[in-house]
C-alpha cells in the first residue's frame, strides 16, 4: 500500500472518529436535558400544594394553656405548602413562639400527615410582676390563663431568676415543715433577701445566713404569737436576736 493510500485511510478513520464523538456528545446532551426536564417537573409536583397537600396534622402532648386556635394560626402558612415543601424547622419555630409552648417537635408521616408534639411551659412562680418562672428557673412571658394554680410571687434582678427560685424552694420547705407558708420572696439589687408569709408577716433576712435566720424566726415565733398584737415584720439581720414590728408600728426587741 502506497503512502497516498495510507493517508486516505487515516483520513477516513479520523472522520469516523469525529462522527462517533459528535454523536456521543449529542446523546449526552439529550440525556442531560431529559434529566433536567424530569427534575423540574418533579420539583413542580413536590411543591404543588394541590397535587401533594398536607391532609392531616396530629397534635399531641398535654396542653393546659395553649388553645387550638393559636396552633391553627401558627400553622396557617404551613397549610398553604405541599407535604414535601413544608419546612419542619420553620413550623417548629412558629410553634415555639407561642407564649405557653416550651418545646415543639415536628415530623412528616407518609403520605400526607404531619405529627406535632408539644411540651408546655410549667409555671412555678410569678416573676417581677408580669412574667413567669418555669420549673427550670427560666423566665418567660405569657398571658394569664384560667386554671393556673396560686403561685408564689418572686422578684429580683432579671438574671437571678434561677437563684431566687432555688432559694424560695429551700426556705419554703423549711417553713412548710414548721407550719408556715412562704408566699413571696424578693432579692434586692444589693442582694438582700425579703420574704413574706401567707399570714402577712414580712421577714427581713439580709444577705447572709438565710436558713439560719429563718430557723431563728421559727424558734422564737411561739413567743411572739402569745402577744396581744399582730406581728407585722421581723427583722432578722442581727447576729443574735431580732427586731419585731407590730401592726401598731411599735417595735420591741426580742433576745
From TrEMBL:
UniProt membrane topology term: Single-pass type II membrane protein
TM helices/strands, residue ranges: 20-40
Domain POTRA: 52-121
Function: Essential cell division protein. May link together the upstream cell division proteins, which are predominantly cytoplasmic, with the downstream cell division proteins, which are predominantly periplasmic. May control correct divisome assembly.
Localization, UniProt: Cell inner membrane; Membrane
Keyword field contains ATP-binding: no
Lineage, uppermost ranks: Bacteria, Pseudomonadati, Pseudomonadota, Gammaproteobacteria, Alteromonadales
GO biological-process terms attached to the record: cell septum assembly; FtsZ-dependent cytokinesis
Name of the protein in question: Cell division protein FtsQ
NADP is among the record's keywords: no
GO cellular component, as recorded: cell division site; plasma membrane
Pfam families, A to Z: FtsQ_DivIB_C, POTRA_1
Species: Shewanella pneumatophori
Highest taxon listed in the record's lineage: Bacteria
Amino acid at each position: 500500500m502506497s503512502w497516498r493510500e495510507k493517508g486516505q485511510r487515516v483520513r477516513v478513520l479520523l472522520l469516523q472518529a469525529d462522527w462517533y464523538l459528535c454523536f456521543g456528545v449529542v446523546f449526552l446532551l439529550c440525556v442531560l436535558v431529559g434529566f433536567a426536564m424530569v427534575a423540574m417537573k418533579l420539583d413542580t409536583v413536590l411543591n404543588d400544594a394541590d397535587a401533594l397537600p398536607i391532609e392531616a396534622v396530629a397534635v399531641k402532648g398535654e396542653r393546659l394553656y395553649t388553645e387550638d386556635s393559636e396552633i391553627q394560626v401558627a400553622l396557617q402558612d404551613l397549610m398553604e405548602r405541599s407535604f414535601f415543601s413544608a419546612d419542619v424547622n420553620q413550623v417548629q419555630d412558629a410553634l415555639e413562639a407561642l407564649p405557653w409552648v416550651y418545646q415543639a417537635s415536628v415530623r412528616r408521616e407518609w403520605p400526607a400527615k404531619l405529627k406535632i408534639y408539644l411540651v408546655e411551659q410549667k409555671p412555678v412562680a410569678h416573676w417581677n410582676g408580669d412574667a413567669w418562672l418555669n420549673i427550670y428557673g427560666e423566665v418567660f412571658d405569657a398571658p394569664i390563663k384560667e386554671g393556673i394554680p396560686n403561685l408564689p410571687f418572686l422578684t429580683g434582678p432579671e438574671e437571678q431568676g434561677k437563684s431566687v427560685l432555688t432559694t424560695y424552694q429551700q426556705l419554703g420547705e423549711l417553713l412548710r415543715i414548721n407550719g408556715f407558708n412562704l408566699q413571696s420572696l424578693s432579692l434586692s439589687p444589693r442582694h438582700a433577701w425579703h420574704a413574706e408569709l401567707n399570714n402577712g408577716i414580712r421577714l427581713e433576712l439580709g444577705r447572709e445566713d438565710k436558713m439560719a435566720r429563718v430557723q431563728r424566726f421559727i424558734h422564737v415565733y411561739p413567743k411572739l404569737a402569745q402577744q396581744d398584737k399582730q406581728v407585722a415584720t421581723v427583722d432578722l439581720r442581727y447576729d443574735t436576736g431580732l427586731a419585731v414590728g407590730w401592726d401598731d408600728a411599735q417595735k420591741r426587741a426580742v433576745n
